[in-house]
Structure formats: C-alpha cells, structure tokens
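so my prof wants the structure for this chain in the tokens format not the other one, which i didnt know existed until like an hour ago. anyway here's the sequence
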Amino acid sequence: MTQAPPARAAGESNPARKHAHRPDQTADGMFRKIQPHEYVCSTWFERDRAHVSLSTPKGRVVFELWDDDVLGAIESGYLKTPRVPRPGDHDWQPSAVQYAIDMGLIPPR
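here's what i got, hopefully its the right format
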C-alpha cells in the first residue's frame, strides 16, 4: 500500500515542481522571448478564399485573417506577398511575423 504525500499549506508550492525545467523558460525561471523564426504560419488559398494565421510554437493564435481581411492587409502593404512561385507556409512566415509586429500583436525583435 502506498502512502499519500504529505498535505501542504494553502499557497505552498510543490518543491519538486519548483526546479522543473521547461523549454520555454530560462534557468532562472523567467520565460524566454519567442524568436521570430519560431512562430508558425499557416496559409490557405483557393479561388476566392484566403486564410493567413500566425501562432506561437505552443499553438496560441497571434492573428488570423480570412478572405477580404487578407486582401486588405496585402493591398495596404502591411502583409507582403512572397516573391516565389506557389508560396508555402514557410514563405509567408516572415511577412506574417512582420505584420504581427506592425499591428502590435507581438513585441519587436
């Protein structure tokens, strides 16, 4: 029969978790800044439909644009189209990161 761990007082942290290392934290426990190349861009284009989104490596959505919003961002110059034939998600990623910075959604580099 296993023994239950001792009860902790309210507000007392678990000492085993205190020193657990997470990849998004520095050694002193502070969260590290997400680097621009780490953001994940997802795009989808089909005839009259368009979708561009940017998220953190952990899946938190930074922005998501659909249809007219994508075209408006491109026409206004905030979202630059990649200069390659048949651009993929990785081609749109730098433009999407810059768009998020310009809109104040993520901190500047």
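also thought this was worth mentioning. The chain has a mean pLDDT of 84.
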